[in-house]
Amino acid sequence: MRNTTKITAAVLATGALTLGLTACGSDKGSAGDKDGPLVVAATPTPQGAILDYVKKNLAKKAGLDLEVKEFTDYVTPNTAVQQGEVFANYFQHKPYLDDFNKKNKTDIVPVPGATVHLEPLGVYSKKIKKLDELKKGATVAVPNDTTNEARALKLLADNGVLKLKAGVGFAATPKDVVSNPLNLKFKELEAAQLPRSIDDVDAAVINGNYALEADLSPAKDAIVAEKAKGNPYGNFLAVKKGDENDPRVKKLAKLLTSPEVKKFIDEKYDGSIVAAF
């Protein structure tokens, strides 16, 4: 059992700002106290596991008192940082954070030099083994948050299933599909629900962390998966603007991008999660 506090938070399907974070189990003073432990919010896999490795094997020697709180959604870790319930988080990529800050008027920023890993997005199915086996009118489940939905559609486009409007970038939605020869239907779901949707759809595009939690391997089970080279979706340590130079944050950033952590990621995840440093 991990030495963490597991948090289950209700997530608004719209991705709107979620208030009322008393369920975090950490009072605001202790989380924001720069002389106290560094409290970091993370999704369980792989971020929680990576932080646990750092806590158990590297933090004490570096003089870092690290506390990890696990969340099971993509909204609460940011609202918790913004409101001071935790000091930092580790769960997201830059396109997602940019979109979140814009929509919620938050000011969370990446910690310089602390991009840790990539979770390849993959297409999974119990009904087909190749994308060209998709039938006309098939239903494909995709994440419903803005950037990961765009990422899912781009993965399908890169593999010849559909075409997106030119220049749509990180904000693509099904409305931006300009060519859909199979007349695919898209089922938009909160990312954590996608693994449970596989039995009900023809295929699902699932984030790497949620695939792993469902015992799906992006390296072995995905029909197709994202390539690591040149990928903008690396996950990083993030804090509220102005906290980037906190000594505890700098220590954790250095530990998270250490040779020991790279070896841990390579050995534990065998290509399903890829170190980004």
Automatic annotation (TrEMBL):
Lipidation, S-diacylglycerol cysteine type: C24
GO cellular component, one term: membrane
Keywords: Lipoprotein, Membrane, Palmitate, Signal
Gene3D superfamilies (alphabetical): Periplasmic binding protein-like II
InterPro entries reported in the protein's UniProt record: Lipoprotein_NlpA (IPR004872)
CDD domains: PBP2_lipoprotein_Tp32
Major place of residence: membrane
Membrane topology: Lipid-anchor
Annotated localization: Membrane
Recorded family membership: Belongs to the nlpA lipoprotein family.
Matches recorded under PANTHER family: D-METHIONINE-BINDING LIPOPROTEIN METQ (PTHR30429), METHIONINE-BINDING LIPOPROTEIN METQ (PTHR30429:SF0)
Protein name: Lipoprotein
Biological source species: Streptomyces alboflavus
Gene name in the database record: metQ
